[in-house]
Amino acid sequence: MSDRVPVSPPSRLGPSEASFRLDPFETHSKIARLIASSAGVSRADLARITGLARSTVSQHVQPLLDVGLIKEQETSPAARGRPATGLALNARAGVVLIADLGATHARLVVADLAQRRLAEHVFGLNLVDSPENVLNLIIEELANLLTKHRLTDRKVRSVVVGLPAPVDFNRGVPIRPPIMPGWDGFPVAQYVQERIDASVLVDNDVNLMALGEARTRPPSQSPLMFVKVSTGIGCGVVTGEGILHRGADGAAGDIGHIRVAGRENVICRCGNIGCVEAVASASALVRTLQQEGRTDAQNADDLARLVKAGDPETVRLVRTAAAEIGDVIATAVHFYNPASIVLGGRMARISDDLLAGVRAVVYSRALPLATRSLSIENSQLGELAGAIGGVVLGIERALAPDSLAEMLQ
């Protein structure tokens, strides 16, 4: 397994930054991220991109070479002359660990700093269990993965945990997770960091999906909204600069609890009424089928089977749900004006009716100015979106100024 995950570069250094007003480690970080995003970039390229003098670039590159974070390599020669010397992250300088947790499964990934996925493990998981039991299992399985693939000699630079719940990113704790009893306010980042000697980041799973999808697409496709339709409904928002927008408290993109008109008789698990998640998610459709007396619809797997079999009632429910979700997304389009909307999650994978229904409503409801160049499509990464977003976040954490300060001092 050697799939490379693209990490977008930081923005160009502004005039004040080029005048040495940046902390040295911030400049190290910007240069390291540029090298990460463009393996083989030369010192001259870095000087041109950052606006720094070439001698200044060399002063910041040398410490990164000395500690083995980056390495020199020959690039393809020009028509004449010697091959140029390029710079790339040293794959052996460390690894990042990703735990992308869903309601019923976990996907663990080990990636190196050259953005390649080295190992992966998917297994069943029950988040109704206590946070200590779940996290102990995750930590044990990550250790087993490192051992199995002979990666125990690599320094763990960062750990990223994705949770299907609202998350206070700065504190690394889930906030009132509806399907994770006992997890509210649990210090996930602290708990993992006490057992794995590395920086630990905890984020909402849809945020990671949005980041993964945005960074594997051309920059012109951002701002991007990633809408996950599965057991619940959530949304991740990525800015035009390729940065996750989490909001002041981590609640940005929580469209699942926007009220749908005319559905005031439906109570959501959040305690409000008429939320789109309560009427249009996979679990909502299963519940509707059961209320209609269907005994062949007990869970999301049954829903998928019925859709694939072309069951008329189930297909009708999916199309109705798509229209209700599309109406909510149309409102968000007016507010955020994204370049792309990407649909993911279980319902997007099992039926094209969701994509067709959302497109129809958004293009008919939203104003032409907001939709004239808007792309609406299914996820390109599928079930890997969250893990790839975790790799991106983990590598950027490993290359952050404070991480480099610890490495270089």
What does this structure look like?
With 409 residues, this protein is α/β, with parallel strands linked by helices. It is 42% helix and 18% strand. The chain contains 16 helices and 13 strands. Strands 5-4-3-6-9 form a five-stranded mixed beta sheet, with helices on both faces. A four-stranded mixed beta sheet has the order 11-10-12-13, sandwiched between helices. Strand 3 (95-101) and strand 4 (105-112) form a beta hairpin. Helix 2 crosses helix 4 and helix 7 crosses helix 15 (385-398). The chain is globular.
Largest sheet geometry = 5 strands, mixed
Count of beta strands? 13
Instruction: Provide mean pLDDT, rounded.
Output: 89
Placed side by side, the strands forming the largest sheet appear as: 5-4-3-6-9
Structural class: alpha/beta
Shape: globular
Uncertain parts: 9-20
Q: Give the N-to-C terminal Cα separation.
A: 33 Å
Order of helices and strands: HHHHEEEEEHEEEHEHEEHHHHEHHHEHH
Structure at a glance:
This protein is α/β, with parallel strands linked by helices.
Could you give the topology of this structure?
Blueprint: H1 15-21, H2 24-37, H3 43-50, H4 54-66, E1 70-74, E2 85-89, E3 95-101, E4 105-112, E5 117-124, H5 131-148, E6 156-163, E7 167-168, E8 173-174, H6 188-193, E9 199-204, H7 205-215, E10 224-229, E11 233-238, H8 276-280, H9 282-291, H10 300-308, H11 312-336, E12 340-344, H12 346-350, H13 352-365, H14 368-371, E13 375-378, H15 385-398, H16 401-408
